[in-house]
Design a protein that fits this description.
Radius of gyration: 33 Å
Helix content: under 10%
Number of strands: 54
Structural class: mainly beta
Oligomer: single chain
Mean pLDDT: 90
Shape: globular
Strand content: over 45%
Number of helices: 11
């Protein structure tokens, strides 16, 4: 019995110990700021590798129950907005107090550069970086739009408010006259297609990329950074890195967003009463005699009114109501990432569905991505990045078409939108058929009867292998592929102006692009004792691009329900084309660091291109830069306020080869004559044709104060481009009128300023980022030519590119209401002869500059407990906009187009002082192109406001969720501007955006959208 009791006692003791070890253990502590020792609330405390966690209270205190295993071997992770993440092993401790350091713009941030990466502290070039968090939650369909106002020296401008349209981007100004000035885009190390493939208005191929898949965007601005891309780096390089998986537990993120949009602005036009008043007066004062009686009222007004009672103002339409529509956006995405130390993965999928503010305009995208990284051994790693997407853009007509929605504002307000219906002479209503008897073509006939769809299938991917030959020497090979298949399907039924005389019209255009790239390079890192560090890269790259196009059109369809070309009775046109280009390049770069303070970098690239002449097939593009980290010097060590100070300087050559294929070759085209085929010469050869070259100097200063609470950079640069690619007139005896040659020079110079601050930390944190950039452009040599662009744009020696050249409006003669124009001296600077009312007697001078003086943005981020608020202001200053539609919209009754309300301020009797001439029907009194239609395009825009709330960690733990955040975002909420049109962020799609002279123009262009959206992000 005694032995039995002893055994029982031992058993109970063992049971007690076992139960005790299984019981939860409590760990508690206080989290304070390392800066001022103040307690930190809302700091997340998680058990690493689990969803178990809590958050600190207002006194910075936390308490967390752990299992015995977690208590002995677990790790706690402390994190909070504005603070450096910290991991601490528990090791059986019941009390763990933590000091968290402020997380500022740390100098050890890794920045992506061409064929590698570098720590920001060691950079000697100028690179602007934007991380994924800054791009998220902006309801736009392309990542470039999300960059607006966030990067110094990068001017980003949408062409108009239509969805999926082209975007104009200039990095440190325009560096060419005839060649494209758009930057080079590189995704995961592979150059990709960024040029519009549309046969009508430019669209944006980069809208195929899902913003949520992007980890970072790095913009190489100076030659030191961009010269590694040689002949394609003159306009800057935009490096896009997509997200990758990290070893650890699988994480799932689900996001959903729903938004609603309206136009940012409307222009006030005349109502019916005002329209009748103005045009009656204009007809009475017509230079062709009084036209107000039967000619105007019984002919035109009756026609416009279509049987309705215009005399009693029965119809009063604001055609803008018909042009705009209720707009919305819906975005859904799923991201899954994780893996082991050997294999990491990132998988995503999603869709975006947008209905534009312009009637009939829609854009949707479906996308998926798979990024894999696998460590096969200690020395060998392989991986892939693959993105697939399908986008559909339901388009509206170009700005210069009466079928485009906003040109509907030209219709008289007394004209019914839909066909009126009468009974016994009384208006009883309207049918659903658009009125066919309007002054101009009723665009609603196009909305109902036209399919204008652009569908794009895109595959951007690469495979890589990285082999560590030695501990400090690695070889990397990359194979990239960019496939773009685009179809533009167009059908206009018999009720439209395009198809009404042909029983319908249809066409289809397929463009297939195949770009593939091979990169092979070695990277060598070597540390020599404690003072010398050297990193070198050397390699070779090959790129080939093939473009195929097929076009077919047809007419005479059996009914409007049959809309494919297979149903066309007559095939009216068709062709196929093919073109290609190739690059073969060799590159090298070396970065040297001595004594942690002296930096030296050099790079060189040799590019060979099929685009240039046999005598100039290869170009050489070197760059050198240096940096001095002054804050490491002993003579600055006593300055406690100074955290970091670095001087930078660089010089390098980059090139521009974006001029199309075969510009140096003698070309022939096929033709027919008398039923026989033949050849006809189309281009004269130039075997000496070569790249444009841009030499750039950059001087910079990076600084940080008060433990990095304040930091920033200042840069001054000079970019000089020579050997411009221009079409030069040649003697007609050669059989040609022009030849592409390397002639001319231009220059950009300016400064950039960036400052980042952590204004407050702790319970309430507030950080700011401000950037501003100034650029001055001048065309210095064109071999005596004046090159014309869109509307009034010109390239003129001694002037900025694309200046506006024409008559300078001088106002109105108060005695007779005539429009006046200045008469200038020969150099265009003095008003020698005063003014004239003879338009042809006034000489043409520079009257506007579409290039902005300053661009920039201000971002403020606030955090209080679980709330966050981000506010972005964007500004553009000093640019002019020419309203090409102004001569019709504000023409003093010269045409029957409806007019802007300011025309009511017209001159009416001697002594009137106004800038609106007398209204004279068909009198051309001030309606000719001139500076009258040029406005200041400067603006300040409340670009985005985002308010978010993150659920507390203790609630998330109960829900077994890692993260939940709900938010509301406003885009383009307010715009402050003196521009008189719809929107100052404009560049009409009437012209090709790749032409550098087609900027600063408005022509019935749609305004940007104002969007309010609501979203939720859930992490599992």
């Amino acid at each position: 019995m005694k032995k039995l009791l002893q055994l029982s006692s031992c058993f109970m003791l063992l049971l007690f110990v076992s139960v005790g070890t299984l019981q939860a253990q409590t760990v508690s502590g206080v989290v304070v700021s390392a800066e001022d020792n103040e307690p930190l609330p809302s700091i997340t405390v998680l058990v690493k590798g689990t969803n178990k966690g809590t958050a600190t209270n207002l006194d910075g205190e936390y308490e967390l129950e752990l299992t015995s295993e977690e208590f002995e071997t677990g790790t706690l992770v402390f994190s909070g907005v504005g603070f450096v993440r910290q991991e601490v092993a528990v090791n059986g401790r019941r009390t763990i107090d933590i000091e968290l350091a402020t997380d500022t713009q740390l100098l050890d941030e890794v920045v992506v550069v061409g064929f590698g990466s570098i720590v920001r502290e060691d950079m000697t070039g100028n690179i602007a970086s934007v991380k994924s968090k800054e791009l998220a939650e902006v309801p736009v369909n392309s990542f470039e739009s999300a960059l607006q106002g966030k990067t110094s020296g990068v001017f980003i401008q949408k062409s108009n408010g239509k969805l999926g349209q082209g975007i104009n981007i200039r990095v440190r100004g325009t560096s060419s006259v005839s060649a494209s000035s758009q930057p080079l885009y590189v995704i995961d190390g592979i150059p990709v297609i960024s040029e519009s493939q549309s046969q009508t208005a430019d669209t944006n191929p980069l809208a195929d990329l899902n913003i949520d898949d992007i980890e970072s965007v790095d913009i190489l601005k100076d030659a030191s950074a961009a010269a590694i891309y040689g002949s394609r780096g003159a306009n800057g390089v935009i490096l896009i890195t997509t997200k990758s998986g990290q070893a650890g537990d699988t994480q799932i993120n689900v996001s959903y967003e729903r938004g609603y949009s309206t136009e940012t602005n409307r222009v006030e036009f005349l109502n019916t009463d005002e329209y009748i008043e103005l045009f009656t007066e204009a007809a009475e004062r017509s230079p062709f005699g009084d036209l107000s009686g039967a000619y105007l009222e019984n002919n035109w007004f009756d026609y416009f009114a279509q049987g309705t009672d215009w005399q009693n103002r029965e119809i009063d339409v604001d055609w803008q109501d018909e042009s705009f529509q209720d707009a919305s956006n819906t975005d859904f995405g799923v991201q899954i990432s994780g893996g082991t130390e050997k294999t990491r993965f990132f998988v995503s999928g999603g869709f975006s569905d947008q209905i534009g503010i312009i009637r009939g305009n829609e854009f949707n995208r479906i996308n998926t991505r798979l990024n894999l990284d696998h460590t096969a051994s200690d020395k060998f790693e392989v991986g892939m990045n693959l993105g697939l997407s399908r986008t559909e853009n339901i388009r509206v007509s170009n700005d210069n078409a009466f079928s485009t929605p906003l040109q509907a504002i030209a219709q008289p307000p007394m004209s019914p939108v839909y066909t009126p219906q009468f009974e016994n002479g009384n208006l009883t209503g309207f049918s659903d058929v658009p009125n066919e008897n309007t002054l101009y073509y009723n665009f609603l006939r196009h909305v109902q009867g036209v399919n204008n769809n652009q569908t794009v299938f895109r595959n951007i991917g690469n495979l890589y292998a990285n082999y560590e030959i030695m501990s400090n020497l690695a070889f990397r090979s990359e194979a990239g592929l960019d496939l773009l298949f685009q179809n533009e399907d167009y059908f206009a039924d018999s009720n439209t102006n395009v198809g009404e005389n042909t029983n319908g019209y249809g066409d289809s255009r397929w463009v297939n692009l195949v770009n593939y790239t091979l990169n092979n390079y070695l990277t060598w890192n070597q540390q020599f004792n404690d003072n010398h560090q050297l990193t070198t890269v050397a390699g070779v790259t090959f790129e080939s691009s093939d473009r195929y196009q097929t076009f077919v059109s047809g007419t005479n369809f059996p009914t409007d329900s049959f809309r494919k070309l297979a149903s066309a009775a007559e095939i009216t046109g068709g062709n196929t084309t093919e073109t290609e280009y190739k690059y073969l390049s060799y590159f090298a770069r070396a970065n040297y660091k001595f004594s942690d303070r002296y930096l030296l970098s050099g790079s060189a690239r040799v590019d060979g291109s099929s685009r240039f002449g046999e005598n100039s097939r290869y170009g050489f593009f070197p760059a050198v830069s240096a940096g001095w980290i002054m804050s490491e010097e002993n003579f600055l060590s006593d300055l406690d306020a100074l955290s970091f100070l670095k001087l930078r300087a660089s010089y390098g050559l980059t090139g521009n080869s974006n001029v199309g294929n075969f510009p140096s070759r003698g070309l022939y085209g096929g033709t027919g004559y008398g039923g026989s085929s033949g050849l006809v010469p189309s281009q004269t050869p130039n075997p000496d044709l070569k790249w444009e070259r841009t030499a750039q100097y950059n001087f910079g200063l990076d600084f940080a104060f008060f433990d990095d609470r304040i930091g920033g950079e200042i840069d001054y640069y000079v970019k000089k481009t020579d050997d411009l690619l221009l079409n030069v007139n040649v003697p007609a005896t050669t059989g040609y009128t022009s030849q592409l040659r390397n002639v001319g020079e231009l220059e950009n110079k300016g400064f950039e300023f960036v400052i980042n601050t952590q204004n407050t930390v702790g319970v309430f944190s507030w950080s700011s980022s401000f950037n501003i950039a100034y650029n001055e452009n001048k065309v210095t040599d064109l071999d005596g030519q004046v090159i014309e662009g869109g509307f009034l744009n010109r390239a003129i020696e001694g002037e900025p590119i694309a200046v506006m050249f024409g008559k300078e409006y001088a106002g109105v003669d108060p005695d007779n209401g005539d429009a006046l124009y200045y008469v200038h001296s020969a150099d265009g600077k003095d008003y020698d002869a005063g003014t004239t009312n003879d338009y042809s007697a006034a000489n043409d001078v520079v009257i506007g500059n579409p290039n902005p003086d300053f661009v920039g943005g201000l971002t403020n981020n606030f955090n209080y407990k679980n709330f966050d608020l981000g506010v972005l202001l964007q500004f553009v200053s000093g640019n002019d906009i020419y309203n090409g539609g102004g001569r019709y919209q504000s023409a003093n009754g010269d045409f029957f187009d409806n007019q802007t309300k300011d025309q009511l301020n017209r001159w009416q009797e001697p002594g009137d002082v106004t800038d609106v001439p007398e209204a004279r029907l068909f009198g051309s009194n001030g309606s000719n192109p001139s500076s009258r239609y040029i406005s200041d395009g400067s603006y300040l825009r409340l670009k985005s406001v985002t308010l978010g709330y993150t659920l507390p960690q203790d609630l998330l733990s109960k829900l077994q969720l890692r993260d939940v955040r709900i938010y509301m975002t406003g885009l383009n909420l307010l715009t402050f501007t003196d521009y008189e049109g719809w929107d100052p962020e404009v560049n009409t799609d009437l012209y090709d955006l790749s032409n550098n002279l087609n900027i600063g123009n408005d022509f019935y262009s749609a305004p940007q959208a104002r969007t309010i959206s609501f979203g939720i992000n859930i992490g599992f």
